[in-house]
Specification:
Alpha-Beta Plaits; 25% helix; 33% strand; five-stranded antiparallel sheet; alpha+beta; 4 helices
């Protein structure tokens, strides 16, 4: 399995709008590409910006190329990105997943009742 990562950052007032934009563009494209095994979107405040890192999981580098094109190390951008992104990495990184130890509910985002 291959893990692909990419990073960009937005102004705090654009964070929620960018999260929605990203879900409607890049993450949707990941999920619609054969060979995609899922994706995570990570967010944190770094200084004056809110940083987003996307992590996508792929069956093979061939599946990554089906999404990214002939140069899988080049980041893929969408209309509307430039209006929101204050910083963007031009490249994506790829890693071979060699181990994963996750509990079945590791990504259950339901809020606990108080």
């Amino acid at each position: 399995m291959i893990m692909r990562t990419w990073r960009g950052a937005v102004r705090p007032e654009d964070a929620e709008r960018y999260r929605e934009h990203q879900a409607d563009t890049g993450v949707r494209d990941y999920r619609e590409t054969p060979g995609n095994r899922g994706a995570l979107v990570l967010r944190r405040t770094q200084g004056d910006l809110v940083e987003f890192t996307t992590v996508s999981f792929w069956e093979s580098m061939e599946a990554v190329r089906a999404f990214a094109g002939d140069d899988p190390g080049r980041a893929r951008f969408y209309p509307g990105d430039d209006a929101l992104l204050a910083e963007k990495d031009e490249h994506a990184d790829h890693y071979e997943v060699v181990s994963a130890e996750l509990e079945p509910a590791a990504f259950d985002f339901a809020q606990p009742e108080e």
